[in-house]
Amino acid sequence: MATEMSVLHKISSNVKKEAAYAVLDRQATRIKEELRQGARKPYKEVIDVYWGNPHRTGMKPLSFVRQVLAACLYPELMKGDKLPADVRQKAQGLLGECSGGSVGCYTATAGTPEIVHRLSEFITRRDGGVPSHPENIFISPGSQWSLANIFKVLVNREAPTRTGVLAPVPCYSTSALSIEELGGAVVPYYLSEEQGWELQVEELHRALESAKGACNPVALYVINPGNPSGHVQSRKSMQEVIRFVSEKRLFLLADEVYQDCVHGEKSGFVSYKRVLAEMGPLLADTVELASFHSVSKGCMGECGLRGGYVELVNLDPAVMKHIYILCSTDSCAPVLGQIALDLMVNPPQPGDPSYPLYDVETQHIRTTLRHNVKRAHAVLNSLPGFCCQPVEGGAFAFPRLDLPPKAVQKAKEAGLQPDLFYVIRLLEEAGVLVSPGSEYRQKEGTYHIRFCIMMPQHIMEEVLRRLERFHTKFMKDFS
Amino acid sequence: MFQISLVSSVRVTQRRRPQQNKMSQQAVDGVPRRGKVLTLDNMNPNVKRVEYAVRGPIVQRAVQIEKELREGIKKPFTEVIKANIGDAHAMGQKPITFLRQVLALCSYPELLEDDKFPSDAKKRARRILEACGGHSIGAYSASQGIECIRQDVAAFIERRDGGIPSNPDNIFLSTGASDAIVTMLKLLVCGEGRDRTGVMISIPQYPLYSAALADLGAVQINYYLDEDKCWGLDVTELKRALNEARQHCDPRVLCIINPGNPTGQVQSRKCIEDVIRFAKEEHLFLMADEVYQENVYAENCKFHSFKKVLFEMGPEFSSTVEMASFHSTSKCYMGECGFRGGYMELINLDPEVKAQLIKLVSVRLCPPIPGQALLDLVVNPPQPNEPSYTTFTKERTAVLATLAEKAQLTEQIFNTVPGITCNPVQGAMYTFPRITLPQKAIDEAKVPDMFYCMRLLEEEGICLVPGSGFGQREGTLHFRLVQRLRQSHYTLDFFFGPPSLCPSTARVLSYRSGESGSKFISLL
Fold first, then answer.
1. Boundaries of CATH 3.40.640.10 in chain B?
2. Which of B23, B42, B55 should one mutate to test binding to chain A, selecting the residue with the greatest count of A CBs within 10 A?
3. Residues of B in contact with A5 (CB under 8 A)
4. Does B515 score more than 50 pLDDT?
5. pLDDT band for position B418 (50/70/90)?
6. Can you tell me the ipTM of this complex?
7. How far apart are CA A300 and CA A297, in angstroms?
8. Which of A195, B434, B457, B475 has the greatest CB tally within 10 Å of its CB?
9. Where in chain B is the domain with CATH 3.90.1150.10?
10. What is the pTM of this model?
């Protein structure tokens, strides 16, 4: 082995230790291999609900979207009547907007201009008329890519104090990793679990105060609807956040990829941009905001196509120029991802040939999610040792685990976080792969698990059944 | 932090903006205005140093001019010819039927019932879908890429390299080769001050490298290709650059682009051996950018993969030299830039470092599945006994033949124009001629080749990238032009410079083209 002579034994110190997923993935691979070789287990297959990966867990893509993509890829398909007229028309239009009439061409850096323009129109419609300007929108290979680019602009490694970004606890792990990889510091603010994972502005103040002397906070990152929390922010809460960032001179990053995943009957999504616009020019014209969206979630669930965008509001034009250049080094987002974004914001309308099927498919997805949320909530809250806040939005359930002291002790002896210990056991004994709360940070002494709820109902039932059985036994074994 | 600037008198520098973004309050219409939170002063300074000429100011002006043309503003030309970016399909190259058939089947599997699709296309689509989560290209894959595709890539590499083993676990699929290149540099760049990592890169180079190094705050170490020797690489030049760099940084990486971009040279086997020996002696990590490996035209040239040569040099080298090779679906006969497909193969990477790399790539979740699928087809093309073989081979041969023809013709044409000299285009898809400008132009312009290209754009509607965007020896000027593939007719229009700068070439133009109105470059 080349270890001794390795050039790379000195690597960037920003890339840190192994994530829980690597451990669990290895275990899952081993189990699958054992099953393949005929080993007897209480289950026939591993159900992977670790990530928010709807197609993997059995959700179906939307027919209209896939038909348009196929026609764009292989224009021969547009001959004849096999594909509905609106599909052919849409594909024709999209190809006309590609250089060289091919989805194999690079596009402009920020995305095909006509698609970017239509995105801005969508945003304006969504926000009840609040104007959106195409030149403020950048399409990228997924929202995390844009988020990383904006973090990159914000994190100044040459500054005397380390750059800090306020991020929620619990928080989607990739975002936190992104900040740290760039040399920034995550400044945690704790969401209030007992209040349904509400964001309380007093906590933002506390977090900011705590950063004094440790780092220089420049930005506040919010995820709404929350991941993994599932909380959908009230307008009032969002206004408080906006006032806070304005007062404390922070850049606001609003990760809104789950805006189409709102299940609760009481809650509705409103964008940060809209709330900001409604707060009068003093705030609306000054607060610097980046909002993120993506094709990976919602009814599309097209994670694999890598399509997302960022809309930048009130940024210094000189900074925008550099953001443009930075994005240009990535060439452009995958064209199919850009097209998927366009189809997401411009779906079939009543009267279009594809509308009836589109409507049936999307209704089915929404019904499934609402059902799953209800069932997961009910089952989890019926089990002693589990407590699940209402899942108002997002793609996950994030119940709290009240682990018996014996289990916590056993975990510590094994050198594992207690919830990881639970999750490893769950995978081994029940063949269900979920993620441990420790991956997302959590209040000291609390434990959670996270699992995706975007799957066909019968698979959700199977997951809940196995979880219930395992949990009951686990709690008994460690009582 | 030190950084060697490009040793060229024509380097473009960013002017600092005046202090208009201070946090002072100014009242406008009685409403107090506050300064911005994110300003040029407090943003990441590395990001300010990033430039990328391929999509730089000339291109932005070209887009603006196109807009003006659409609005009916009169210009000396009716369309802008964009010859700035290696975008094959935009330059007239056609997509390969087989590839698009399989991708369409993957996108909309209902088409598997359609008789119009050949059986080998369906077979491959089924296999790819089987490997996707939920049988959908819309599911995330593992961050390293779909396993069976990595296995296919490894098998392809083994075939390409005459049987030298390739381990799928050392293959990382990526969002274009650029993504993998940047990821490796992220992993490699560390240290502060005098210990800051130095990365050797050729001059001229593809400006992704200079941009990534600026972004990471790494030290760029330039080694010059020899224009007089057909852009050849000499180890003595590598040694010179390295020794000089050791005085103020910690050189750890050597990047080489073969076939070259923008220069098009194909390195000889001996040269590759010399580079490998040098990397071993000097304890450098080798990054071999081989995205143009199938774009080789010159008869006396052959592509030799760095990996193959490394292994053929024996275990003393093959078990010690640490290397990453990069490939992509954007170039060669496929030209599918818009899919963002690519991979890297890692040799002799420390397992602990590999674990960190796996973590690093997880931040971007996974490369686009259509790009991964496309890569699978590129490494698994139709075989002689399969239905699509004939058409596939015909299309592929036609594309490569046309590119070869144009490479030759381009070189010939440029060498007839006064003030322009051009090395043979041995590979890739660009021409990088050297230009001699009148002294007056050089004296007037801050960046003469940028000035030349901007004038060319404004006067003739042709968009190129100035040599200063790639780096060049001090006192020399170049531009990079992408070979276009107009196949409708062979028009022998000659390339010329903007009349205001080059009156002699303008006369050549009017004699040859014999028509007024729009003159356009059509490099066949």
1. 119-379
2. B55
3. 283, 320
4. no
5. confident
6. 0.93
7. 6
8. B457
9. 53-91+392-513
10. 0.91
